[in-house]
Amino acid sequence: MEGTTINLFSSCLLLILMSSSAADTITANQTITDGQKIVSARGEFEMGFFSYEHSPQNRYFGIWYKKISSGTVIWVANRETAIANTSGVIRVTSRGIVVSSSQSTDNIIWSSNYLRSVDNPVAQLLDSGNLVFVDGNDKENFVWQSFDYPVDNFLPGMKFGYDLESGIDRYFLPYKSDDDPSPGTYIHRIDHNGYPQLILWKDSDVLYRTGPWVGNRFSGNTVLKPNGIYTNRFVITQTEAYYISDLLSSSESAITRLTLTPDGEARRLIWNREKQDWTLILTLQVTDCERYGLCGLNGVCNINTTPRCQCMEGFDPKVPEEWAAADWSNGCSHNVQLECGNGDGFMRSSGVKLPDTRWK
Fold first, then answer.
1. Could you give the 3-state DSSP secondary structure of residue 9?
2. Is 16 helix (H, G, I), strand (E, B) or coil?
3. Nearest Cα to 284, choosing from 179, 185, 211, 183?
4. Each residue's pLDDT tens digit, 285-324
5. Contact 195, 212 (CB under 8 A)
6. CA 87 to chain centre
7. Residue 285 and which of 2, 264, 291, 298 are 20 to 30 A apart at CA?
8. pTM above 0.90, yes or no
9. CB neighbour list of residue 108: distance below 8 Å, 6 or more residues apart
10. Could you tell me if 121 and 92 are in contact, meaning their C-beta atoms sit under 8 angstroms apart?
11. Residues 182, 176: contact at Cβ < 8 Å?
12. CA-CA distance, 169 to 77, in Å (whole number)?
């Protein structure tokens, strides 16, 4: 009877230990293996190892929604180096979070890579979707956070931009394809060269720019009516420039994200509880005229005309034969010689994106 009591007590203790793996933290004396999960305090997000539908052999360590749209991944650690089996292990060391392809501490495939050691290392998954690495003796000050290293999703409270003091540059490198999280050919970031503006590149080519911030929006974006869900801010100081989205206090239960697709399209989505699906509420690029430099220098793009490009008043196509063939890249040049002080001056243009602010 006594042995039965001990075995029963041991079984209960084992169940308690197993259930504790669903806590929101990992400490230095724990390991998380494939199949185990870490859940944020209110159960908003979950993290662990996962696979994509069309490549089940590849395992990644990431974060995804748990209460809604289970399986919608918002962050991936080892996006460039998949684990080919279920032997992956997560550890927390004095210098950060480590992903290994096996129990061996030598097989590290990803690390948060903090340069200094902390005394009481703890990793915690927050209900914002942010994975943080902290000293357990000072949990208010994040040593490292996943929000500083976005992949393809921009969540409320996440900064999108750069910090000159810390050297952190938060930008988007979307997936190569829907089932391959390795970086693709697009990159979306706030440019450091000149007055800050958002620019989308494909490889080394600029595809789109927003223009500079003009108080309530970027100059190239349409004026949006208040949506009652979130507000956008753009903060510029001597050391920082970043874009941030905040949920309104009246809509704290709303779930929204901005995502950059593998083909470079930025989409603002909101979770529709009635339909149990993501609803598209806006896209960053909507017309031909958003294409960078489509009409060349001194050219104006008008989505309501065909052809799209026209020369500004006082200008003619620089290469008429190219213009006639719908190649407007060389733009327009003055059709008269300017004479300062002889009636020549500036002409007002409205409803256009402000000029490129980058230093050439």
1. helix
2. helix
3. 211
4. 667 888 899 999 999 998 888 899 999 988 999 999 999 9
5. yes
6. 29
7. 298
8. no
9. 98, 99, 100
10. yes
11. yes
12. 17
